[in-house]
Amino acid sequence: MTTEKLPDDLGTKERTLVMRGFGPRPTHLSPRDRYLDLRTPVFLGVLVTSLVALMTFTALHLVPIARPPLGLKSALMEAARLMLYAVTLGNAHLGPWMSQTTNDLAQMGLIFRTTLAAFAGLGVGGWIVMQQKPTVGYRHVSGIQLRRGWEAEAEARKQSQGLCGHYEPFLNLHPDLPLPKNHWTKHAIFLGGVGSGKTQILWPIVDQLVKGHRKLFLYDVKGDFTQGLVADRNPRATIVSPWDARSGVWDIALELAHDRQLIQAFATAFIPEQGGSSSAFWTGAGRTVMAGILECQYALFGTAWGWTQLAESLALPAADIKGLFELVKSDYARVLSQADLAVIDQALAVIGDDPNSATAQSIFATIAAASRSMAILSAAWGVADSFAIERQRKAKRKRWFTMHEWVHADERQLGPKKRLIVRQGADRDTTGKIIRALVDVAATHIVSPTLPDDEHGRTLAFVIDEWPTLGKVESLPSLIDKGRSKGCVCILAAQDTNQIQLAYGPEQSKALISMVGTHVICRMAMGESRKALAQNFGTRKVLVYGASETSSPSGTSQSGSWKEEAWAVVPDTHLSSEVGLDLTNPKRPLIKAIVSLGSDPLLLRWPIFQAPKIGQADCPAAWTLRTNLDAIDHQRRSSVKVAVALGQKKSTGDGGGGTDRETAADREPESSALPFGLPDFLR
Q: Hey, what domains does the chain have and what are their CATH numbers?
């Protein structure tokens, strides 16, 4: 009996015992162990060898040759001598044992025929014996099962054909797994720890989107995609990062002017929920005040405002912000709609009569974090003179972008702006707010009824690596649920399901994972997340063979029976031991991961992608190299009309907190106070 160790097809961390012997399956073997009973293969081998040798010799015997007359005894003697002659290849030292008849038979070709027949029989018989493989002690009955190796590649091609149908493939998830557009619009999630190969699998997908001239929103954490897509002279994408000198500028005034809901989405992104339900009131109140400040920007400047003006307004003292609301409500009521005035009324109600009260101060403390991020954006993207914003907007049209343009415009008109690469900057909190705001605003445009359905024509691809580190993106569930018909494709990557639960809560995180149509599982570290992911694959029914021995005075007898059991489709240890980087062939390293499209999961292997490097990952902006505070403290400048207006109010002796309602009511806003036109919905 021989034994050896081989990997188990179930993917368990332990290596499976393989045994060969003469007799039934031993009782001490587990169902996963392989065993080969050699009695049947050896019997078949001997039988086939004899039959093939006999048939071959008979066929060769039909060729006529001159044969000397031999009796039975002489023929047997000559056959033995022929075999000896064949084995020794006609050794001259054996001449005394060879008769003239033996030499004559050898010269007539009989030894050649005998040898050829013997080798033919041994070859066929040996091949049949080698085809007998050790088998496990179970049989698959029902349910999905893990496919691996060549079987996984064949199953991938089969699933691809079934999903594509009469549709053309849109993107290749794997060289053997091209998928149609209507499957990619069901979105995809990549899960795997640090160094598990997620980026290596994502890179070919991004490369296909770029070569296909698709709209792409990409969050680049490490800078690999920026190096490969943004050249110094001919960039194929637009960088979005306040800390990068090559960054485009988000035209926030034009962006939020398209829909009133965009203001709420923007405020929600910059003032996220903190501390659970206990801080819900302060978060909601802070968002209301910020929405009111945004409405005031349109009332005072039309669309001729930007990050500097917004940062200045947010940095005003509480009493001055209350005075700003009262000023706009009294002097600019005619240029605002009732809905816009209602937003300002809500902000005033939240602040209350005393802006210095404990409640009001807690609300403004919530806004302080947003104000800090606005100061950074003001330093990077701001224009201090509001009268120069329109000139900047026209002069730098290729760099200024809006998500409304990205969603609605034709891909051929956008140029590099059809690919937005958001780089992670020095301040992760501000980076998260920018991305949340961009995605929330884009989602508002996408799910809006004004955007017609076009699942197979339009492509709006979101590739977000390290997705949970951004915090809770409020619009993501609706984007996954409702963005499919608009051509939206979300590809999200995370290290751990626990990260998703921290951002979205246990229930919503489970819903998000289950709503996605494609799951790619890379190497996971041991822990609860690994167990939970393995459980998501479910179980399958198998018949397990159980052998037993019975001892009696006459000897020992063995019997066996089959019973049904439920086994995990993918054991949790498989997510650590059988996926990740495969260095079996150092010259051709591979990335192994499990792909689930809703049917049998596939353990596939990806070749290492050689990513291009045509540019720099980082190019520090000039403002980041300044050491004085003026570089990021633009809100101290006095160029904003808000500060001017409030200064005039203070001169009346009101201390900046109140307003002269009678004077404000008698005074109508002049056209010169609004140097640029207002959006239609604000008129």
A: 2-138 (no CATH), 150-226+401-607 (3.40.50.300), 252-392+640-682 (no CATH)
